[in-house]
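On clarity, I found the account of how folds are encoded harder to follow than it need be. What matters is that the chain and its backbone geometry are given together, residue for residue. I therefore recommend that a typical entry be quoted early in the introduction. An entry of this sort, consisting of the sequence and the corresponding backbone structure tokens, reads as follows:
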Amino acid sequence: MHLTVEIPDDIALRLTEAEGDLSRRALEGFALEEFKIGRVNKPELRRLLGFSTRYELDGFLKAPGVGADYTMEDFERERQWLSFSLDPVS
């Protein structure tokens, strides 16, 4: 799926000059927010961002400012998801 976001040209130019690839930053911001609120899990986040390994994803999440607000609730949600996904199906 392709998604189009309308941003005024002057703002888009300024944002692009400041940090580079605006499309990538928008995708990362969107995907990270969806992960933080529990709509996507780590494997889905990795796919959304196009990382080939979980180590790349871990590096992204450990980047300054990205995972800084990781909470115990985030940890518990991931722990429960991993417990569920690792349980053998009866």
